[in-house]
Design a protein that fits this description.
two-stranded antiparallel sheet
Protein backbone atom coordinates (compact mmCIF):
# COMPACT_ATOMS: atom_id res chain seq x y z
CA UNK A 1 0.00 0.00 0.00
CA UNK A 2 2.01 2.91 -1.25
CA UNK A 3 1.48 6.37 0.16
CA UNK A 4 2.81 9.74 -1.03
CA UNK A 5 1.27 11.95 1.64
CA UNK A 6 2.30 15.42 2.76
CA UNK A 7 3.45 15.42 6.35
CA UNK A 8 4.03 18.05 8.99
CA UNK A 9 6.06 17.26 12.08
CA UNK A 10 4.58 20.02 14.22
CA UNK A 11 7.84 21.91 14.65
CA UNK A 12 6.48 24.99 12.87
CA UNK A 13 4.17 26.55 15.45
CA UNK A 14 1.35 28.94 14.63
CA UNK A 15 3.29 31.82 16.09
CA UNK A 16 6.19 31.15 13.79
CA UNK A 17 3.85 30.59 10.88
CA UNK A 18 2.22 33.95 11.54
CA UNK A 19 5.65 35.50 11.38
CA UNK A 20 5.94 34.27 7.79
CA UNK A 21 2.75 36.11 6.92
CA UNK A 22 4.50 39.43 7.52
CA UNK A 23 7.22 40.25 4.98
CA UNK A 24 9.26 42.26 7.49
CA UNK A 25 9.63 39.24 9.74
CA UNK A 26 10.72 36.78 7.05
CA UNK A 27 14.40 37.66 7.31
CA UNK A 28 14.41 37.33 11.08
CA UNK A 29 12.53 34.02 10.80
CA UNK A 30 15.14 32.64 8.37
CA UNK A 31 17.90 33.58 10.77
CA UNK A 32 16.10 32.18 13.82
CA UNK A 33 14.72 28.91 12.38
CA UNK A 34 16.88 27.80 9.41
CA UNK A 35 16.28 24.07 9.99
CA UNK A 36 12.49 24.42 10.13
CA UNK A 37 12.50 26.56 7.00
CA UNK A 38 14.55 23.88 5.22
CA UNK A 39 12.02 21.21 6.25
CA UNK A 40 9.22 23.40 4.90
CA UNK A 41 11.07 23.91 1.63
CA UNK A 42 11.81 20.18 1.26
CA UNK A 43 8.14 19.28 1.77
CA UNK A 44 6.93 21.83 -0.75
CA UNK A 45 9.56 20.63 -3.23
CA UNK A 46 8.39 17.03 -2.76
CA UNK A 47 4.78 18.07 -3.38
CA UNK A 48 5.81 19.79 -6.60
CA UNK A 49 7.81 16.73 -7.69
CA UNK A 50 4.85 14.40 -7.06
CA UNK A 51 2.61 16.77 -9.04
CA UNK A 52 5.02 16.66 -11.98
CA UNK A 53 5.00 12.86 -11.93
CA UNK A 54 1.18 12.71 -11.74
CA UNK A 55 0.85 15.21 -14.58
CA UNK A 56 3.37 13.30 -16.72
CA UNK A 57 1.50 10.03 -16.13
CA UNK A 58 -1.82 11.67 -17.04
CA UNK A 59 -0.29 13.06 -20.25
CA UNK A 60 1.14 9.65 -21.15
CA UNK A 61 -2.20 7.90 -20.57
CA UNK A 62 -4.04 10.57 -22.60
CA UNK A 63 -1.57 10.19 -25.47
CA UNK A 64 -2.00 6.40 -25.46
CA UNK A 65 -5.80 6.72 -25.44
CA UNK A 66 -5.87 9.16 -28.34
CA UNK A 67 -3.36 7.29 -30.51
CA UNK A 68 -5.20 3.96 -30.08
CA UNK A 69 -8.75 5.27 -30.08
CA UNK A 70 -9.51 3.94 -33.57
CA UNK A 71 -8.45 0.41 -32.58
CA UNK A 72 -10.33 0.67 -29.30
CA UNK A 73 -13.57 1.60 -31.06
CA UNK A 74 -13.15 -1.27 -33.55
CA UNK A 75 -12.09 -4.07 -31.20
CA UNK A 76 -13.69 -3.04 -27.90
CA UNK A 77 -16.74 -0.87 -28.49
CA UNK A 78 -18.09 -2.45 -31.69
CA UNK A 79 -16.70 -5.99 -31.66
CA UNK A 80 -19.07 -8.87 -30.82
CA UNK A 81 -17.60 -12.34 -31.53
CA UNK A 82 -19.34 -15.67 -32.07
CA UNK A 83 -22.36 -14.34 -33.94
CA UNK A 84 -24.75 -16.62 -35.80
CA UNK A 85 -25.80 -16.33 -39.43
CA UNK A 86 -28.19 -13.50 -38.63
CA UNK A 87 -25.41 -11.49 -37.02
CA UNK A 88 -26.68 -11.89 -33.45
CA UNK A 89 -24.57 -13.16 -30.54
CA UNK A 90 -25.93 -15.41 -27.81
CA UNK A 91 -26.60 -13.89 -24.38
CA UNK A 92 -23.73 -15.93 -22.90
CA UNK A 93 -21.20 -14.59 -25.39
CA UNK A 94 -22.59 -11.09 -24.99
CA UNK A 95 -22.30 -11.28 -21.20
CA UNK A 96 -18.69 -12.43 -21.39
CA UNK A 97 -17.83 -9.71 -23.87
CA UNK A 98 -19.56 -7.02 -21.79
CA UNK A 99 -17.55 -8.14 -18.75
CA UNK A 100 -14.25 -7.85 -20.61
CA UNK A 101 -15.42 -4.63 -22.22
CA UNK A 102 -16.29 -3.11 -18.84
CA UNK A 103 -12.99 -4.13 -17.25
CA UNK A 104 -11.02 -2.67 -20.15
CA UNK A 105 -12.89 0.63 -20.29
CA UNK A 106 -12.90 1.11 -16.53
CA UNK A 107 -9.22 0.29 -16.18
CA UNK A 108 -8.27 2.52 -19.10
CA UNK A 109 -10.22 5.64 -18.19
CA UNK A 110 -10.43 5.44 -14.42
CA UNK A 111 -6.64 5.75 -14.19
CA UNK A 112 -6.80 9.06 -16.04
CA UNK A 113 -9.63 10.37 -13.84
CA UNK A 114 -7.77 9.30 -10.70
CA UNK A 115 -4.56 11.04 -11.79
CA UNK A 116 -6.44 14.23 -12.64
CA UNK A 117 -8.20 14.15 -9.26
CA UNK A 118 -4.92 13.48 -7.44
CA UNK A 119 -3.26 16.40 -9.23
CA UNK A 120 -6.20 18.69 -8.51
CA UNK A 121 -6.21 17.95 -4.78
CA UNK A 122 -2.46 18.43 -4.51
CA UNK A 123 -2.72 21.87 -6.11
CA UNK A 124 -5.69 23.20 -4.16
CA UNK A 125 -5.37 25.12 -0.90
CA UNK A 126 -7.75 25.46 2.01
CA UNK A 127 -9.15 21.95 2.39
CA UNK A 128 -10.85 21.37 5.73
CA UNK A 129 -9.96 18.43 7.98
CA UNK A 130 -13.20 16.48 7.25
CA UNK A 131 -12.64 16.84 3.51
CA UNK A 132 -9.05 15.63 3.85
CA UNK A 133 -10.18 12.62 5.88
CA UNK A 134 -12.55 11.65 3.09
CA UNK A 135 -9.78 12.16 0.54
CA UNK A 136 -7.37 9.86 2.39
CA UNK A 137 -10.01 7.14 2.60
CA UNK A 138 -10.55 7.49 -1.15
CA UNK A 139 -6.78 7.60 -1.69
CA UNK A 140 -6.45 4.14 -0.09
CA UNK A 141 -9.62 2.36 -1.26
CA UNK A 142 -10.25 4.13 -4.58
CA UNK A 143 -6.62 4.19 -5.65
CA UNK A 144 -4.16 1.45 -4.82
CA UNK A 145 -6.63 -1.18 -3.61
CA UNK A 146 -9.16 -0.76 -6.41
CA UNK A 147 -6.63 -0.62 -9.21
CA UNK A 148 -4.50 -3.50 -7.93
CA UNK A 149 -7.62 -5.66 -7.71
CA UNK A 150 -8.65 -4.67 -11.24
CA UNK A 151 -5.22 -5.56 -12.64
CA UNK A 152 -5.27 -8.91 -10.84
CA UNK A 153 -8.69 -9.75 -12.30
CA UNK A 154 -7.42 -8.94 -15.80
CA UNK A 155 -4.28 -11.06 -15.24
CA UNK A 156 -6.41 -13.98 -14.03
CA UNK A 157 -8.61 -13.75 -17.14
CA UNK A 158 -5.55 -13.65 -19.38
CA UNK A 159 -3.82 -16.57 -17.68
CA UNK A 160 -7.03 -18.54 -17.92
CA UNK A 161 -7.16 -17.81 -21.67
CA UNK A 162 -3.51 -18.80 -22.13
CA UNK A 163 -4.10 -22.07 -20.30
CA UNK A 164 -7.08 -22.94 -22.50
CA UNK A 165 -5.06 -22.15 -25.63
CA UNK A 166 -2.35 -24.62 -24.57
CA UNK A 167 -4.23 -27.33 -22.67
CA UNK A 168 -7.89 -26.91 -23.49
CA UNK A 169 -10.14 -27.91 -20.60
CA UNK A 170 -7.80 -30.55 -19.12
CA UNK A 171 -7.02 -29.50 -15.55
CA UNK A 172 -8.67 -26.15 -16.16
CA UNK A 173 -10.72 -26.18 -12.96
CA UNK A 174 -7.66 -26.61 -10.69
CA UNK A 175 -5.87 -23.86 -12.60
CA UNK A 176 -8.82 -21.49 -12.17
CA UNK A 177 -9.15 -22.25 -8.46
CA UNK A 178 -5.45 -21.54 -7.90
CA UNK A 179 -5.58 -18.23 -9.80
CA UNK A 180 -8.68 -17.13 -7.93
CA UNK A 181 -7.11 -18.08 -4.59
CA UNK A 182 -4.04 -15.93 -5.27
CA UNK A 183 -6.11 -12.92 -6.35
CA UNK A 184 -8.57 -13.20 -3.46
CA UNK A 185 -5.77 -13.66 -0.90
CA UNK A 186 -4.06 -10.50 -2.07
CA UNK A 187 -7.34 -8.58 -2.06
CA UNK A 188 -8.18 -9.63 1.51
CA UNK A 189 -4.68 -8.83 2.76
CA UNK A 190 -4.63 -5.39 1.12
CA UNK A 191 -8.18 -4.66 2.28
CA UNK A 192 -7.25 -5.32 5.91
CA UNK A 193 -3.99 -3.40 5.69
CA UNK A 194 -5.64 -0.59 3.72
CA UNK A 195 -8.36 -0.21 6.34
CA UNK A 196 -5.75 0.05 9.11
CA UNK A 197 -3.73 2.60 7.12
CA UNK A 198 -6.80 4.68 6.21
CA UNK A 199 -7.95 4.88 9.84
CA UNK A 200 -4.41 5.73 10.95
CA UNK A 201 -4.16 8.53 8.37
CA UNK A 202 -7.62 9.95 9.14
CA UNK A 203 -6.67 10.35 12.81
CA UNK A 204 -3.56 12.35 11.89
CA UNK A 205 -4.99 14.90 9.49
CA UNK A 206 -4.02 18.43 10.52
CA UNK A 207 -4.55 21.90 9.12
CA UNK A 208 -1.54 23.61 7.51
CA UNK A 209 0.14 26.33 9.58
CA UNK A 210 -1.49 29.74 9.27
CA UNK A 211 0.05 31.91 6.59
CA UNK A 212 1.66 29.01 4.71
CA UNK A 213 0.31 28.49 1.16
CA UNK A 214 0.26 24.72 1.61
CA UNK A 215 -1.42 22.79 -1.23
CA UNK A 216 -3.42 19.62 -0.68
CA UNK A 217 -3.90 17.82 2.63
CA UNK A 218 -1.46 17.32 5.47
CA UNK A 219 -0.65 14.61 8.02
CA UNK A 220 1.04 15.20 11.36
CA UNK A 221 3.51 12.34 10.70
CA UNK A 222 4.56 9.96 7.97
CA UNK A 223 2.98 6.56 7.53
CA UNK A 224 5.20 3.96 9.20
CA UNK A 225 6.82 1.35 7.01
CA UNK A 226 5.57 -1.34 9.36
CA UNK A 227 2.02 -0.53 8.23
CA UNK A 228 2.65 -0.67 4.48
CA UNK A 229 5.38 -3.34 4.25
CA UNK A 230 2.98 -6.34 4.57
CA UNK A 231 0.93 -5.00 1.64
CA UNK A 232 4.07 -4.61 -0.45
CA UNK A 233 5.17 -8.18 0.33
CA UNK A 234 1.73 -9.57 -0.53
CA UNK A 235 1.54 -7.62 -3.80
CA UNK A 236 5.06 -8.64 -4.88
CA UNK A 237 4.36 -12.28 -4.04
CA UNK A 238 1.11 -12.35 -6.04
CA UNK A 239 2.71 -10.54 -9.01
CA UNK A 240 5.62 -13.00 -8.94
CA UNK A 241 3.23 -15.96 -8.99
CA UNK A 242 1.33 -14.54 -11.96
CA UNK A 243 4.56 -13.83 -13.85
CA UNK A 244 5.92 -17.31 -13.09
CA UNK A 245 2.71 -18.91 -14.38
CA UNK A 246 2.88 -16.79 -17.54
CA UNK A 247 6.49 -17.76 -18.25
CA UNK A 248 5.71 -21.40 -17.47
CA UNK A 249 2.87 -21.43 -19.99
CA UNK A 250 5.17 -19.81 -22.56
CA UNK A 251 7.83 -22.45 -21.82
CA UNK A 252 5.30 -25.25 -22.31
CA UNK A 253 4.21 -23.66 -25.57
CA UNK A 254 7.78 -23.58 -26.85
CA UNK A 255 8.44 -27.09 -25.57
CA UNK A 256 5.47 -28.43 -27.56
CA UNK A 257 6.80 -26.76 -30.69
CA UNK A 258 10.31 -28.19 -30.22
CA UNK A 259 9.26 -31.80 -29.64
CA UNK A 260 9.57 -32.64 -33.30
CA UNK A 261 12.28 -30.09 -33.93
CA UNK A 262 15.87 -31.32 -34.00
CA UNK A 263 18.08 -28.36 -34.90
CA UNK A 264 18.23 -26.01 -31.89
CA UNK A 265 19.96 -23.06 -33.52
CA UNK A 266 19.37 -19.48 -32.41
CA UNK A 267 17.75 -18.54 -35.71
CA UNK A 268 15.37 -21.52 -35.56
CA UNK A 269 14.42 -20.73 -31.96
CA UNK A 270 13.67 -17.11 -32.92
CA UNK A 271 11.59 -18.36 -35.83
CA UNK A 272 9.54 -20.60 -33.55
CA UNK A 273 8.94 -17.74 -31.13
CA UNK A 274 7.77 -15.50 -33.97
CA UNK A 275 5.34 -18.22 -35.09
CA UNK A 276 3.60 -18.31 -31.71
CA UNK A 277 0.10 -16.86 -31.80
CA UNK A 278 0.19 -13.04 -31.54
CA UNK A 279 -2.37 -13.15 -28.72
CA UNK A 280 -0.08 -15.37 -26.64
CA UNK A 281 2.88 -13.07 -27.19
CA UNK A 282 0.76 -10.07 -26.26
CA UNK A 283 -0.33 -11.69 -23.01
CA UNK A 284 3.27 -12.56 -22.12
CA UNK A 285 4.52 -9.08 -23.01
CA UNK A 286 1.88 -7.32 -20.91
CA UNK A 287 2.51 -9.59 -17.91
CA UNK A 288 6.24 -8.88 -18.02
CA UNK A 289 5.69 -5.13 -18.42
CA UNK A 290 3.33 -5.11 -15.44
CA UNK A 291 5.88 -6.89 -13.27
CA UNK A 292 8.81 -4.67 -14.36
CA UNK A 293 7.30 -1.16 -14.63
Amino acid sequence: MRCSCDTYDGSLTNARAEALAHPRLIISFVDAFPEELQVLYDNLFQIRLVNYVALSCAASVTYDILTNLDKEITFIWRYYPHTDNSGHASWHNRARHILVQTLFIFGRYYALLYLVGFFTVNNHQGFSIPVCKVYYYYFVFGGELLYTTLVNVILVIRLNAMYQILHGTQGLRKHQVFLASVAISQFVAELVIGTIVAIWMAKRVVEPPAGIPWPGCMLSEEVHTTLTLPAWITAILAATIFLALTLRLLHLRLKMRFRCFGDFTISNIKGKIRNIQPMTLTLVRDSVLFYFP
